Amino acid sequence: MNLQPSSRGLTKQDGDFLRVIASVSVVTAHCVHYWVERFCQAREWASLPFLCALFDQLTRFTVPLFLFLSGFGLALQFNQKPLVPANYYRFRLAKILGPFLVWSGLTAFRHMGYLQNLPWRHYPFSALQSLSKFLFLDGFDYQYYFLIVIFQFYLIFPFVYRLGRSHKWLGIFLAAHLLLLSPSETFLHLFGLEMPALHPNSLVYHWFYCFAGMFAAGNADFLMSVVTRWSKAGVVMFWLLAGALLNFEFLWNIQGDKSLNDVDHFNRWAVLVYCLASLLVFMKFKNWFRMNIYSHPRGKILFTHFAPYTFFVYLAHTHVLRIVDLLLWEVTVFDLINRIVLVLVGSYALAWFAQWLLEEFPRMRFLIGLPRNHAFQWDGVPGIRRLKLRRLSSESGFHASPRRVIMPRARGWKPDRFPPGREQGIRQPVNSQ
Q: Are 36 and 264 in contact (CB under 8 A)?
């Protein structure tokens, strides 16, 4: 996703920086989820699980931010260079569907019992329906729902992207979004109504964040026009109040004996307000980020070694987390910090190593969510070059060189020719007469 420069709106570096922040936050949130569950069960207020629960709520901006950036980048690209639907679907759907199917296949071993118990022999059509629902709606791993939502967004985008500049449609979609968010069901119950029975991974619950990104792409000055009306202190105070409201709602529902699945989700009014406050804070202080992080020599590593790999890390980090839990399972404060560090470092190290390992296989990199170009060089590590995968030459069977070497052509030089009737595997010199 490429974000083009804008004088007052978001830039490519802004989008890359926000993706890194969201990536680190979502990995950290999954690392502390064990302590969040402990708090919901024991409700120990002055404890480490309580602090983890508060922190977990403050990471609720992550998925809405990913959706916002996806809508923003896609709409900006379409505004600059519209694609016919055939070309658009061939590239965009494959970009999501390929990694989704590959990583789902890598995760399928965790569900072998369920897959084997499906009635493949007696009711194959019913078994295929159950498998399709499990794969494309539920997801084989809990973070894959983001890909399911994005896939739905990519499907309908060519038909709605022209609405992205409209203030009227922004208001319509916001109103519809609020009707589907909690605590709307409480007000509906007062009138004897029920919420529609929709799958939680349906796009309707996440559509507004995608459309808000499309709207920001079509109205570059909209965000800054809102921010300029607020002082820095006012923006920070709004963010603190939104965070306090978010945690208060969560703790109130937990105290009311609601399950964690019913209260710890993104479909809440408080989450929407908190996401808006977080975006306003970034827009208000983004000049500080540019001067102190973007331009700093050490800050540039975020845009070369971290931002290109956020998609891969999002897909792979749960596998790294399970390995860490298997090898180092404790419940101390040290274990909490150790788990976060190991999973973050391990996930990005896996991304760098896989990018280097598959340097000569761009299609394989594409299918597992890696970027086109690599930034981390492993060749300096003694002995590691032997691990690198090489593409075999089709003629000789030797390993091909990673870069093609073109020899200079000397004066009077002629390419070798093969006399008729001779095999091309044996080169004959050109007759000088």
A: yes
User: Tens digit of pLDDT for each residue in 71-98?
Assistant: 999 998 888 888 888 888 988 888 899 9
Domain range annotation of the chain: 12-367
Closest CA to 265 of 129, 63, 400: 63
CA 90, 91, 94, 99: dihedral to nearest 10 degrees?
A: 170
CB 284, CB 227: distance < 8 Å: yes
Would you place residue 185 in the very low, low, confident or very high pLDDT band (cuts 50, 70, 90)? confident
**Type of residue at 141:** D
Q: CA 50, 52, 53, 55 torsion: positive or negative?
A: positive
Does the pLDDT at position 122 exceed 60? Answer: yes
pLDDT digits (tens, 9 = 90+) for 333-379: 888 899 999 999 999 999 999 999 998 899 999 999 999 876 667 76
Q: What is the 3-state secondary structure (H, E, C) of the chain?
A: CCCCCCCCCCCHHHHHHHHHHHHHHHHHHHHCHHHHHHHHHHCCCCCHHHHHHHHHHHCCCHHHHHHHHHHHHHHHHHHHCCCCHHHHHHHHHHHHHHHHHHHHHHHHHHHHHHHHHCCCCCCHHHHHHHHHHHHHHHCCCHHHHHHHHHHHHHHHHHHHHHHHHCHHHHHHHHHHHHHHCECHHHHHHHCCCCCCCCCCCCHHHCHHHHHHHHHHHHCCCHHHHHHCCCCHHHHHHHHHHHHHHHHHHHHHHHHCCCCHHHHCCCCEHHHHHHHHHHHHHHHHHHHHHHHHHHCCCCCCHHHHHHHHHHHHHHHHHHHHHHHHHHHCCCCCHHHHHHHHHHHHHHHHHHHHHHHHHCCCCHHHHHHCCCCCCCCCCCCCCCCHHHHCCCCECCCCCCECCCCCCCCCCCCCCCCCECCCCCCCCCCECCCCC
Q: What is the mean pLDDT of the chain?
A: 84
